Amino acid sequence: MSDDDRGYTFDQARWADDDGYVSLLSEAAPGRAEPGDALPDDLTRDELALPDPAEPTVVRHYTRLSALNYGVDAGPYPLGSCTMKYNPAFLEDVAALPEAAVHPDRPDESVQGVLEIQHRLQRALARIGGMDAVTLQPPAGAAGEFTGIEVTKAYHRANGEGETRSEVLVPSSAHGTNFATAAMAGYEVVELPPGDDGRVDIDALAAAVGPETAALMLTNPNTVGLFERDVVEAAELVHDAGGLLYYDGANLNALLGRARPGDMGFDVMHYNVHKTFATPHGGGGPGAGPVGVVSDLAEFLPTPHVRETDDGYERYGPERSVGKVHGFTGNWLVLLKAYAYVARLGDEGLRDTSATAVLNANYLAEQIGLDVPYGPFHHEFAATAGDRDAADLARAMLDHGVHPPTTKWPEFVHEAMLTEPTEAESRRDLDALAAAFDAAAAADDETVANAPERTAARRIDQVGAAREPRLSWQALGDENAGTGD
Amino acid sequence: MRFDYPPERRYRPTHEWLTADEPRRVGVTDFAQDELGDVVFVELPDPGDPLTAGDAFGVVESIKAVSDLYAPVDGEVATINESLFDRPELVNDDPYGEGWMIEVRVDAAGELLSADEYREQVE
Ligand SMILES: Cc1ncc(COP(=O)(O)O)c(C=O)c1O
Prior knowledge:
The structure holds two protein chains of two kinds.
Chain A (H helix, E strand, L loop, with lengths): L11 H8 L4 H5 L26 H14 L21 H6 L16 H18 L3 E3 L5 H18 L8 E5 L4 H9 L3 E5 L9 H7 L4 E7 L11 H10 L3 E6 L11 H4 L3 E4 L1 H4 L14 E3 L11 E5 L2 E5 L15 H36 L13 E4 L5 H9 L7 E2 L8 E4 L7 H16 L2 H6 L11 H6 L18
Parallel strand pairs in A: 2-3, 2-4, 4-5, 5-6
Antiparallel strand pairs in A: 1-7, 6-7, 8-9, 10-12, 11-12
Helix pairs in contact in A: 5-12, 6-7, 12-14, 13-14
Chain B lengths: L9 E2 L4 E3 L6 E4 L1 H7 L2 E5 L6 E2 L4 E7 L3 E5 L2 E8 L2 H4 L3 H4 L8 E8 L5 H8 L1
């Protein structure tokens, strides 16, 4: 940083030191230390030479960065499977309530309101999923999967079958986290090939289940938006062999208020709060991936858990708990948003959500020119880019002002463009999305190979980034490093 | 697209090759490197590790996919190609030469294909 960048920083200590001003704030708050005296000398380091740019420079920098970014607040964001729902603004108000900012170590009797909301959310999620008990602790869907499979393992162990039940069955259409979860929990992963209709092949399942089966992990509707019609039969097969059924709740948005995993025969499930209940995708966190279980599994849930007592609510450790997967009762403010969302929408609103999400996906699938195998769909569909590269076509869509869909996944759809518009988009936005699909598909090869041309960053060097990852600002080298001088 | 498959080598259906002469080296085929796309990471066993024909001995990762590498023989790892750790692109640039992965001491070869049989399978 050069001296030319220095300017007003509105920093109390600096004003008081340099110009002898006394901060209005410190005068208004009697008893406060004098600005500049706040930290003893032996705790401060002058040699750090922190950058000291003018405040407007900093504000403009961040405002410019935010304008370079594309989010669901800027336009449609139809990433299939990810459910990039618009997050209603009222949720921010709720999460910003001063009453919500409580330390998790406070004694139960002083945070009864918080515990009551957590308990209500546990009950609401249990009702939505057809489960008997719900833990709010896991901090993401993938963490929920891991928790659910650990609970499954604890259950089998308690029945003396911890050793024999060594396999988890996962359809090849499943999200990568399902395979990873099963492997991390120490299971052998058995991959089930898809049937011709894109659904689980019930014969392949029948051949794979056996006394070694700990669980079948299933996503329903599956990752191309198809309802697993044979789910009840699948549940019987697995249950008859003594295994459990795990429901990956990533696609629960399609079923809200209409069908419940518990009624289909699932024993344990996670809810992706940031997908279904409109909280932010945390970029790895903080998020929430509550786990619901049937009553036989409730004693294995993580600790602490919230329950109702005669005179209020309390946190306790379930009898044979698998332990902790995260601190306390999870990411509270995210959970608070989820509760507010459920409470604001109510039964009617949630039913309406799933109907509109399904309608929007099918409308969009009809509008676009690309081939869309399978269907009709629930909340998402996988178009195919045909003999083009799906990722290139997606890059070309960026030049038409929308975010493209998830590409090249699931792998059993050739050059897949997995598209999930969600219920939040208007017909006008869906038409704009369809126009972007068609414009990209109609573009000539050279345009597609060079796209995007109108975005802040163009072709990202993925190979370079993977071969030589630069994971901190220090790796940028001297020419770019801000030294503060 | 036609790829090159040196006729004196032997191949696994899972795209690994094995040289006929000492040092007996193992790598992946031209077809495999093309399917994978730009290789960004290679994970190899340690010298001395036992090998079982048909079992995974390492991992090759590209921008598109992560794939296991399968041993063409029963035996033992003699040495590994450490230059792949810094320059995984050698697998793409020279799959039969500098992109080799391990050298093996062979106890028994698994069931392997000739170059023509392999070509027939992939093309
Ligand atoms: C089908 C499916 N399962 C599981 C997950 C993992 O969830 P999370 O991102 O909350 O960890 C995802 C996330 O995208 C998903 O799409």
